[in-house]
Structure formats: C-alpha cells, structure tokens
Design goal:
By secondary structure, the protein is mainly beta. It contains 1 helix and 11 strands; from the N terminus they run βββαββββββββ. Strand 6 and strand 7 form a beta hairpin.
Length: 134
C-alpha cells in the first residue's frame, strides 16, 4: 500500500497517510479562501489510519451546515496542513500542496462554485456544486 507524507513548509509538522485518496476536491468558499490565502483550497481525503508527526495548533470552524471542522496548523511556519470533522472518525483531509507532488491527481469535485473566481478553470470532468453537496 503506497504511503504519502505531507509536510508543512518548515518540516516540523508532517502527516503520513496510506493508500489512494478517497476523494479529491477544491473548495471556493470564502472561509477556505481566507484560511489558505488563495482563491480556493485543494484537499485530498484519506481513510484512517494516519500518523501525525510534530505538534500542531488547532482552529475550529463551524461550516454552513453546522459541521465543526478542526484545522491543524504548524505553530512554527503557520502552514495549514490537515483537518478533521468533529464526530466523524476514520478520515482526514490533507492540503494537496503539502505533498509537493505535481503529479497528484486532479480534483473530482468543486464545492461552493458560486464563490469561484471567474478566471479559475476547473479540470475536465470535475463535478461542480453551487454550495456544499447534500
């Protein structure tokens, strides 16, 4: 089973995941734009088990549908590396850029497409949702 290691900029915080991603998506919501400092967040979901190496700072944000997301940041360099959803065990969302792999697969989903900057083009075959899918 393939192992991937995602890392913050300084290398203090890392996450080790196994197997293929269970999903890859991009989110254009304003909260993700502010959180990443970019025009969208690119995230890959992986099933447990996963291993965290280093220490993280946590930030909890409540989504539009009431879910609580726990984002983990490196306290040294500030990189937002991964997140989980409160009450949902068994999966983790990792920032695609943390793998530093230009060959990483393209997203399958685009959410909050209503907030997508008009100059951002989605890869062919990406399924877009106006907001968060049900």
């Amino acid at each position: 089973m393939p192992i991937r290691i995602g890392s913050c900029t300084c290398g203090q915080l890392r996450i080790e995941v196994q197997g293929a991603p269970t999903g890859i998506g991009i989110c254009h919501c304003l909260a993700c734009q502010q959180r990443t400092g970019s025009v969208f967040a690119a995230l890959a979901s992986f099933a447990a088990p996963y291993k965290v190496i280093g220490s993280a700072t946590e930030y909890v944000r409540t989504g539009d549908q009431g879910a609580k997301f726990i984002f983990r940041f490196c306290p040294v360099c500030g990189t937002n590396l991964f997140h989980t959803e409160e009450g949902v065990a068994g999966s983790v969302g990792v920032a695609v850029g943390a793998f530093a792999d230009p060959g990483f697969p393209a997203p399958q989903l685009s959410i909050y497409d209503c907030r997508r900057h008009p100059w951002v083009r989605l890869p062919a075959g990406t399924v877009a949702f106006k907001k968060d899918p049900p």
